[in-house]
Write a structure and sequence with these properties.
The complex is a heterodimer of chains A (251) and B (252).
Chain A: H1 7-20, H2 27-30, H3 33-45, H4 48-80, H5 82-95, H6 104-111, H7 115-140, H8 143-151, H9 156-193, H10 198-208, H11 212-240, E1 243-244, E2 249-250
Antiparallel strand pairs in A: 1-2
Helix pairs in contact in A: 3-11, 4-5, 4-7, 4-9, 4-10, 6-7, 7-9, 9-10, 9-11, 10-11
Chain B: H1 2-27, H2 39-51, H3 54-86, H4 88-101, H5 109-117, H6 121-131, H7 133-145, H8 149-157, H9 162-200, H10 204-214, H11 218-246
Helix pairs in contact in B: 2-11, 3-4, 3-6, 3-7, 3-9, 3-10, 5-6, 6-9, 7-9, 9-10, 9-11, 10-11
Classes of the chains: A mainly alpha (251), B mainly alpha (252).
Chain lengths: 251, 252
């Protein structure tokens, strides 16, 4: 029964290919499946696709790393100290509704074109999911653990590193996963919009060169890459957190 | 009352400190003036843009595109979502395809749509419509599929027609999920509208901030970013009000 899901895409591809043979079909805009596959193989073969993918990944992970380094401690701080939360909530509520793409021109003015500008926008976008989950994780930490930490007379930093972080790791990972999804989308968006590098720019330049086959091949590739990254992260999550340290049971 | 006042002071304390320090550091010349204007400059720029009507014009252009695209996406998403969600075959057929398309960045559609439609207003609306379709569609599918089976049994017992089941049972039951999808779609619509405007440079808030950045008008840039954030906030408040109106019976 699972095979049913394959039917619509296959039908679509066949119809597309058949239509493209008709003289009335706007092949200059929509190409056809055979040409798209050809363009995909060609760009894999000559290395341009993999180079662009590596560039996009590099900025995605730089930005996500920055978001984690800033977002986790900030989330822990406001999550475990109610007073810090009340002080920070004003700034957070001003900045959070700003869509990350609106920051693109500012990042452009600060860093010029290139990886640092893109990483900055990605970090701004991924900061919010990471921070929100870290805050929730810090609030949800088991009372017993906090009491143990207090009994052992740990200071705030030790409490963060030795108790909060391990206890919240499973939940934090959810934040990382959400952040990664956001980061990848924003990286491609920045490249499509302004930044001349990576997969997004490959698309814009293929569009400017009037090569719909390449544009669609890149679209398919971005879909495949995004899907693979999601699958790998989901698998890692399952492998890493099979054991629940608090209850001592397997989930 | 006193508690509320204390709360207010606590939350506005840090922003006030940040702004004061920012203004002070700027006046001492410690900040890079190329991209970091003083808060006072941003304020002047913002009031000028409001008074000249420039901001309102840009916001209305953006708002119009966004609403048309989002409404199209919402209608299509709800209709498709009911079709996919209420039939088992439809769900089996389409859900793998939907799952594959869902994580695709909607902005990656822009180059393809530019090829198909050129740098036009219709292209921007199409980007918004295609991009904000997914949350609404998937929300509706999830909501319709989660309808309490006993309700459907009752409907079958009453020999209700399919269209009646949809409007009287499936839609109301799926409403919370649909509204959540609509809300997410609206956020996405603003993002896509800003991106598309930056690429086509055809007015609107997105075009305005990129232009400000290219001309090194940092104060105008900050004012524009502020306006976009405010637009997002207003849209969110509006849909929040709709949500509360829909569920007003819940709070009794």
């Amino acid at each position: 029964m699972r095979a049913l899901g394959v039917v619509p895409p296959v039908l679509f591809l066949v119809a597309w290919q058949l239509c493209s043979w008709s003289p009335a079909f706007p092949i200059q805009t929509f190409s056809n499946p055979a040409e798209v596959v050809n363009a995909l193989l060609q760009s894999i073969w000559d290395g341009t696709l993999l180079r662009a993918t590596a560039q996009t990944f590099q900025t995605t992970f730089c930005g996500l790393g920055l978001a984690i380094v800033l977002g986790v401690p900030f989330g822990f701080l406001v999550g475990s100290l109610p007073r810090a939360n009340r002080a920070a909530v004003g700034v957070v509520e001003i900045l959070r509704p700003v869509p990350a793409v609106a920051v693109i021109p500012l990042a452009l003015l600060m860093f010029g074109f290139g990886s640092s500008m893109e990483s900055a926008v990605v970090a701004f976008a991924a900061f919010w999911p990471v921070m929100v989950i870290a805050r929730a994780a810090a609030r949800a930490v088991d009372e017993r653990l906090i009491e143990v930490a207090r009994a052992l007379e740990f200071n705030t930093l030790e409490r963060f590193v030795k108790f909060l972080f391990p206890a919240a790791l499973r939940q934090l990972f959810v934040g990382f996963r959400l952040g990664l999804g956001v980061a990848l989308v924003v990286a491609v968006t920045v490249e499509v919009a302004v930044n001349p590098q990576g997969l997004g720019y490959s698309m814009t330049s293929a569009q400017a060169a009037l090569r719909p086959d390449q544009v669609i091949a890149l679209l398919v590739w971005i879909g495949l890459v995004g899907w693979t990254v999601n699958a790998v992260v989901a698998l890692a999550e399952m492998r890493l957190f099979r054991w629940d340290p608090l209850s001592g049971a397997h989930r | 009352m006193r508690y509320a006042a204390l709360r207010f002071i606590e939350t506005t304390f840090l922003p006030a400190i940040v702004l004061t320090l920012w203004q002070f550091a700027w006046s001492k010349g410690w900040l890079p003036r190329l991209f970091l204007p003083a808060p006072s400059e941003i304020w002047i720029s913002l009031t000028r843009m409001v008074q000249s009507g420039e901001l309102l014009l840009a916001a209305s252009v953006t708002g119009w595109r966004l609403l048309v695209g989002w409404l199209a996406a919402s209608l299509l998403g709800i209709a498709l979502g009911i079709a996919v969600g209420s039939s088992r075959i439809g769900h089996r057929l389409l859900s793998p395809t939907l799952e594959f398309i869902r994580p695709l960045p909607a902005s990656a559609l822009i180059p393809l749509l530019i090829l198909a439609m050129g740098l036009t207003d219709q292209m921007i609306v199409a980007v918004i419509a295609l991009g904000s379709l997914w949350p609404v569609l998937l929300g509706t599918v999830a909501g319709v599929r989660a309808v309490e089976p006993r309700l459907l049994e009752v409907a079958a017992g009453l020999e209700m027609s399919r269209s009646r089941v949809t409007t009287r049972i499936a839609l109301p039951a799926a409403l919370p999920d649909i509204l959540a999808g609509l809300r997410l779609g609206l956020t996405l619509a603003l993002v896509l509208c800003v991106v598309a405007e930056m690429i086509t440079m055809s007015g609107g808030l997105g075009g305005q901030i990129l232009l400000a950045s290219r001309n090194f008008r940092a104060a105008d840039l900050f004012a524009g970013i502020f306006a976009i954030g405010a637009t997002g906030l207003v849209l969110d408040l509006c849909i929040g009000a709709v949500e509360r109106w829909c569920f007003r019976w819940r709070r009794v």
